[in-house]
Each structure stands twice: as structure tokens, then as C-alpha cells.
Design brief:
Layout: E1 3-8, H1 16-23, E2 29-32, E3 41-45, E4 48-52, E5 65-68, E6 73-74, H2 76-88, E7 97-99, E8 103-104, H3 107-120, H4 132-141, H5 153-175, H6 182-196, E9 200-201, H7 203-212, E10 217-220, H8 246-251, E11 260-266, E12 269-271, H9 284-292, E13 305-307, E14 309-310, H10 311-321, E15 325-329, E16 339-348, E17 351-353, H11 360-364, E18 367-374, H12 391-404, E19 408-412, E20 420-422
Parallel strand pairs: 1-10, 1-11, 2-5, 2-10, 5-7, 6-8, 7-9, 11-15, 14-16, 15-19
Antiparallel strand pairs: 3-4, 12-13, 16-17, 16-18, 19-20
Helix pairs in contact: 3-4, 3-5, 5-6
The structure holds inosinic acid (IMP).
Inosinic acid is lined by residues 11-13, 38-40, 125-128, 130, 132-133, 222-223, 227, 236, 238-239, 272-273.
Length: 434
């Protein structure tokens, strides 16, 4: 029963959608296991570009059943818009299923996210303002509304009534914002439930039945390891668990059912929002990464912060995700730089730190210690084997493999599916486990 997890090893935006695309032919179900419409992925098929936030990227393949698992927070309006957009462009969505246990992002969550960010001043997280944190907060506080609740008017009335009393008090008194009116919110929520009724079900049953039939399932994480609520740079993180373990709680599988974990790594670092990023570059090299790599957020359009690859969190990410193999993306973006650097340690208060410090305040005081590699000037976008890569690029990839301690199975040298170098055979089932 093969179950592969795809997760990001940095701060998100590593190009996980392309990996799903590479694996799609062998997969029957793609499950999104955490996050919400804070995520964004762009999928290019032929001349068409699709921007998705909630529906897993595998949805564009007709043979794949897309599933939104119980660990996702769903903004029903975004989901309805996305389904309608895809259907209007000829993508069949009747197989989509959404967990009845997934929590709903209500309009008051979005309002609270924005209000708190505005009030936070220097302490703002730089969230996507999609209501992610407040919705997960309600889930943990057991005051949330779940997708299944939208289908039960009596239950919805009572849960919404309780939640709204609290939320309106908070919005009005803490933030001086406008309260929500119960009747119109209730009627909106009922209409979302009616529209999405056919999709909402127990997705864990679908997942387990498919595994029992020996089908191959893919669990697609959003964001990345360093934005993980427990293992990232708290509080500058998202409110869910993008690490591979999140696929268990948020996707509906047990740890022993995961057969491989594919870690997706960008050849340099990017980050959106606030929080420490030790290798950030404010110079022309950083500008090169932004412009050549088109590093602007899919969801918010924000310019991503760019910098050199950081080996310090890489080993941490490989370990806590139990990564089997790495897909290295966007190596082509580094072409044309005279020198390519990687961070191998930090200097913090006159001490050398080589292990990832779990405290954002330590990271804020850290200065990077770099190892330098010769750059390469050749355009590598047409390379299709490792041998065709310039020796300097090969040395860079070898250093990543050595530090990570797991093989790089694929190297991406451009956005197209064909612009991929297969290093170590097929992705499925061949990689080692650390
Ligand atoms: P939130 O998830 O909207 O609460 O935002 C929390 C942090 O995660 C912010 O720094 C966001 O910029 C970041 N973030 C959320 N989603 C993504 C993503 O898909 N890619 C990159 N960063 C993200």
C-alpha cells in the first residue's frame, strides 16, 4: 500500500506542485493534509496556467481523485470559486471530496486575522490574512465549525450562535472592528453547505479503503518545515503542521502506512512574511533570485525574501520529516552567478552554532558562516542528465546530498515537466530511508 508524502523542506514555495505532477501518472488519489487558502500553487499545462489555493494540484489530472483532508481549514467561498473556475475551464471536479471534519474558515476568522495583524505593529507575523490562525485556534479551542456542520442547520445554528457571540465581542472591543450579523452569516453558511454537499464526506474512509486496495496515494503538504507550528521559527510560522507527520493527523493515515517521504528543496532560500532568515540577501544576488526566479507569492503577490541555501535547517528538516529522497528545484535560477554560497553554520554571541536553534530570537542574532562554491555561467535549462550539468553545478548538488544525508532523486531545471533531470531512477519506492 504505497503512500508517499511530499513536503517542503524550507519556508514553503519550494515547488511541491511540480513534484505531484511528476508522480501523477502512478497515483490514484492526492490528499491535501493541512493549511488552507494561504497556500498557492501555479500549475502550467500546455498553454494554460492554473492558480490553485485549496484544491490539491493533482486535481488537474482526470484520473486522480483530489481530497481535502481533515487537517485542512477550508474557506467555503474560496473552494466554491475554485471548483467553478476549474469546471468552467473543462476540469471535471465531481470526484473531489472534502473531509466533513475539516474546519471552516468563517468570515470572522479572516476579519480577526487582519485586525490582529494591523494591531500588532512591529510584532506582526506577516500572515496571508486568510484567517488561518484564528480558524485553527478555534479548532483547538473546540469552538470551530466543521464542514459537516454546514449540512446540519440545527447544529450550525447553535455552534455559530455560540462562536459569534465571542467573536463579535473580540472584534468590537479588542480591535474596534465591525461585528457580524448572525442571520446573514447563518444563511450564507447554509448556502455554502448546500453548494458543497456532494463533496463533503468521511475522507479517511476513502483513504483507508484505497490503501487496502493497494492503490498509490500521494499526501501533499502546503507551506514548509520551517513554517511548522511546532518545528519552525515560532511564532513566525503558520498554524498547522506542514511536516510529513502532518499527513497522518491531517490526511488520515497511520505513521507505518507512509512508505516514502519526498522532501522538496529549492536551490536557494525564500521566505514570505516576517521572521528570521539568516541567509537573506539585500544585494544584487538577492535581486537576481527574485527576478530570475520570479519570486512573488501566488496568494498575496508579495515579493519573497531571497537568500543562499542554508544547510543548518536542512539536516533538521531531513530528520523530522524522515525524508527518503530530495527533489531539488530551480537549480537553473543560480546560473550566471560567479559564486554560489551555502550557509554551514551560524555565529551567535561569539559562538559557532551548527545545529538548528529552535528559538527565533537566537536566529535573529545569528550571522551566517558561508562556504563558497564556484558558479556556472551555462544555461542549464536544456540539461536532461547529470552528466550534462556543468561540473560546478554537479559539485553544488553533491554538497547538498552530502549534507542532507539522503539522495537527490530529481533536479528541476525549469518550470516545464520535461525540464527535469532524473538522477536516481524512478521516484517511487526506490529511495532509501535514513
Ligand atoms: P498564515 O499561514 O497566513 O497564518 O501566515 C503565517 C506565515 O506563513 C506568514 O509568514 C506567511 O507568509 C507564511 N505562509 C503561509 N502560507 C504560505 C505559503 O503557501 N508559502 C509561503 N509562506 C506562507
Amino acid at each position: 500500500m504505497p503512500a508517499s508524502v511530499i513536503c517542503g523542506l524550507q519556508w514553503g514555495d519550494e515547488g511541491k506542485g511540480k513534484v505531484t505532477d511528476l508522480l501523477a501518472a502512478d497515483v490514484s488519489i492526492v490528499v491535501r493534509y493541512q493549511g488552507g487558502d494561504n497556500a498557492g500553487h501555479t500549475v502550467v499545462i500546455g498553454d494554460e496556467t492554473f492558480k490553485l489555493h485549496l484544491v490539491p494540484s493533482g486535481a488537474l489530472h482526470p484520473h486522480i481523485q483530489p481530497i481535502i483532508g481533515p487537517g485542512v481549514v477550508v474557506n467555503p467561498r474560496t473552494l466554491i470559486e475554485e471548483i467553478e473556475m476549474l469546471e468552467s475551464r473543462g476540469i471535471e471536479m465531481s470526484k473531489l471530496r472534502v473531509s466533513a471534519a475539516a474546519h471552516v474558515i468563517m468570515p470572522y476568522h479572516v476579519a480577526l486575522d487582519g485586525a490582529r495583524e494591523s494591531a500588532a505593529g512591529e510584532e506582526m507575523i506577516g500572515t496571508t490574512k486568510r484567517g488561518i490562525g484564528p480558524a485553527y485556534g478555534d479548532r483547538a479551542w473546540r469552538t470551530g465549525i466543521r464542514m459537516g456542520d454546514l449540512l446540519d442547520p440545527d447544529l450550525l445554528r447553535s455552534r455559530l450562535g455560540t462562536a459569534l457571540t465571542e467573536k463579535n465581542a473580540l472584534l468590537e472591543r479588542a480591535y474596534g472592528s465591525r461585528p457580524f450579523e448572525f442571520d446573514s452569516l447563518f444563511s450564507d453558511a447554509l448556502s455554502w453547505g448546500q453548494r458543497l454537499n456532494a463533496y463533503v464526506t468521511d475522507t479517511t474512509r476513502i483513504v483507508q479503503d484505497a490503501l487496502a486496495r493497494d492503490e498509490h496515494l500521494l499526501f501533499e503538504g502546503a507551506q514548509g518545515t520551517l513554517l511548522d507550528l511546532d518545528h519552525g521559527t515560532y511564532p513566525y510560522v503558520t498554524s498547522s503542521n506542514p511536516i510529513a507527520g502532518g499527513a497522518c493527523t491531517g490526511g488520515g493515515i497511520g505513521p507505518r502506512q507512509i512508505t516514502q517521504v519526498i522532501g522538496v528543496l529549492k536551490a536557494y532560500s525564500t521566505r514570505v512574511g516576517a521572521g528570521p532568515m539568516v541567509t537573506e540577501l539585500d544585494d544584487e544576488v538577492g535581486a537576481h533570485m527574485v527576478e530570475v526566479g520570479r519570486e512573488y507569492g501566488t496568494t498575496t503577490g508579495r515579493r519573497r525574501r531571497c537568500g543562499w541555501l542554508d544547510f543548518v535547517p536542512l539536516r533538521h528538516a531531513v530528520q523530522i520529516n524522515s525524508v527518503s529522497s530530495i527533489v531539488l528545484n530551480k537549480l537553473d535560477i543560480l546560473s550566471g552567478l560567479d559564486e554560489v554560497k551555502v550557509c554551514v553554520g551560524y555565529r551567535v554571541d561569539n559562538e559557532i552554532v551548527e545545529e538548528w536553534p529552535l528559538s527565533a530570537s537566537v536566529l535573529e542574532r545569528a550571522a551566517p558562516l558561508y562556504e563558497s562554491f564556484e558558479g556556472w555561467s551555462q544555461d542549464i535549462r536544456e540539461c536532461r542528465s547529470v552528466d550534462e550539468l556543468p561540473p560546478a553545478a554537479r559539485r553544488y548538488v553533491a554538497a547538498i546530498e552530502e549534507r542532507a544525508g539522503v539522495p537527490v532523486s530529481h533536479i528541476s531545471v525549469g518550470p516545464e515537466r520535461t525540464q527535469t533531470i532524473e538522477v536516481s531512477g524512478a521516484l517511487l519506492g526506490t529511495a532509501s530511508t535514513p
